[in-house]
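R.M. (postdoc): so does anyone remember the format we settled on? I'll just put the structure tokens first.
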């Protein structure tokens, strides 16, 4: 395996789509309502937040986008990042840009708990958000793709005995799109790996790595998964997506891998357009059309 480690700055810049108590909505464009910094939880005295982008009219389908590159979750003014979600907003999907406890402060197992909570929160408040709790999609790029696959493969029914109403809700999603995702973290963690030096979120006990490797959790009840990967990616080699796709298919789960020939870790130009079209089409097929069929 060829290995090329990128700096945090390079990783954030290489992926174009990494550029996310209710307050009064802001309007950043015609017919798009933005609810910034919606709090979905707290940890260590800090708020966990998401930005909500809601077209008017919306189609009733919510897409959670994992704001994560190298498990670093950056904040930016929502009006300036709305263009990132244009392919989904143009099709009237509601986008929820989820930020998690960020590297270098937090490690992957802690980050996983944050994003799992975000799904529970959205389901609990689905009516107010105008989305169907049973037709939620999730997507992300690189580390965000890893977290998306975690949500697709490691869901649960919630804890009925929890004092926290959010934690009593299940965290299942209905469709996943993951761009160039790490799917097996076992080669990335431990003293012999160069990755933790560059990605602090990987500095956790190797005994816990199986619990955050979605490749190991493929099961027959997983939702449909699309992965998009460049065949020249040296940061997250394409074998991650190939193995994940096979593991899902072996369990009878609908899974596809779109290979972008000649592309590295991130896509631009025509490659980016192809990837975006596939991204939107996957959610239209597995969420929107299913919702329409259920009505009839």
């Amino acid at each position: 395996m060829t290995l090329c480690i990128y700096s945090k700055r390079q990783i954030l810049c290489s992926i174009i789509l990494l550029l996310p108590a209710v307050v009064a909505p802001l309007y950043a464009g015609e017919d798009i309502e933005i609810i910034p910094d919606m709090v979905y939880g707290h940890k260590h005295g800090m708020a966990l937040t998401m930005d909500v982008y809601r077209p008017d009219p919306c189609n009733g389908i919510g897409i959670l986008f994992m704001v994560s590159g190298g498990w670093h979750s950056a904040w930016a003014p929502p009006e300036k990042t709305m263009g990132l979600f244009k392919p989904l907003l143009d099709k009237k999907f509601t986008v929820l840009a989820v930020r998690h406890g960020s590297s270098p402060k937090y490690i992957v197992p802690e980050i996983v708990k944050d994003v799992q909570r975000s799904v529970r929160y959205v389901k609990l408040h689905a009516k107010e958000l105008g989305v169907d709790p049973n037709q939620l999609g999730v997507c992300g790029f690189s580390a965000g793709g890893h977290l998306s696959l975690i949500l697709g493969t490691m869901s649960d029914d919630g804890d009925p005995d929890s004092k926290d109403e959010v934690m009593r809700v299940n965290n299942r999603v209905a469709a996943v799109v993951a761009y160039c995702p790490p799917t097996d973290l076992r080669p990335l963690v431990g003293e012999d790996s160069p990755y933790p030096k560059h990605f602090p979120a990987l500095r956790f006990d190797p005994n816990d790595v199986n619990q955050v490797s979605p490749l190991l959790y493929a099961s027959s009840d997983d939702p449909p998964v699309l992965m998009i990967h460049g065949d020249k990616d040296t940061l997250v080699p394409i074998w991650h997506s190939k193995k994940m796709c096979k593991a899902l298919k072996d369990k009878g789960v609908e899974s596809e891998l779109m290979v972008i020939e000649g592309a590295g870790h991130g896509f631009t130009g025509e490659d980016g357009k192809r990837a975006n079209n596939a991204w939107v089409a996957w959610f239209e097929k597995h969420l929107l059309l299913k919702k329409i069929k259920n009505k009839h």
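R.M.: ...and that's the designed sequence above, right after the tokens. Also worth knowing: The first helix runs from residue 8 to 14. The chain is about 30% helix and 20% strand.
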